[in-house]
Amino acid sequence: MQAGLAAGDPGAVRPQTRWTGSKAPRCRIGIARPHRTCRGSDGAAFLDRWLGGNVQLNQALLDVIPCLGVERVYLASDQGSRRGAYVEQLYQGQRWLDGAFLSHRVSHRKPDPRYFDHILRTVDRAPTECLFVDDNAACVAAATAVGTAGIQFVDALSLTSELAARGLPL
Asked: Which GO MF terms does the UniProt record name (predicted)?
């Protein structure tokens, strides 16, 4: 997501096309009309709804992460600048978090292989030294395609079982 609203977000504006000109249309003018979820909302209420709409911390997962026997942990998320700042604020104070790779900063989104290549270059690790966990199967498949190990997240208990099966100390 680039800075601003993405089409899939509840607060996204949907363009309406209006044709101008006397004969064949030569120019389209996009006119933004508010999406149904932001009608009747002031700016602050709309932002709160858009930012917090589906961003919730998974406390069971957060309790597991500090117990993992790993060197570093990074957040990898497809977020625009505003929503990314909100997500980073939610994770602020988590001592186990070493950084965040938000798509608006990386300039690529998961599952694009360039997203994962950027992360591997930045953390200066070979793909075989890394493990990628995500709830989206396509993103896990893309990460494994560049050589990292991958686990599709279902819940914290399944994750700890999968990590233990791979020999990762818990």
From this structure: hydrolase activity
Rounded Cα gap, residues 55 and 67, in angstroms: 23
Q: Which of 104-108, 127-131, 166-170 has the highest mean pLDDT?
A: 127-131
- Provide the pairing of β-strand 131-134 with 149-152: parallel
Quick count: other Cβ atoms within 10 Å of Cβ 113?
13
Q: Which domains does the chain have, with CATH numbers?
A: 14-52 (no CATH), 59-165 (3.40.50.1000)
pLDDT digits (tens, 9 = 90+) for 108-142: 999 999 999 999 999 999 999 999 999 999 999 99
At residue 108, φ and ψ (nearest 5 deg) are -145, 155
Q: Contact, 18 vs 29, CB < 8 A?
A: yes
- Give which of 117, 131, 128 is closest to 159, Cα–Cα: 131
Helix H segments across the chain? 43-52, 59-64, 81-91, 103-106, 113-123, 137-145, 156-165
Indicate yes or no: pTM above 0.85: no
- The greatest distance separating any two alpha carbons of the chain, rounded to the nearest whole angstrom, comes to 72
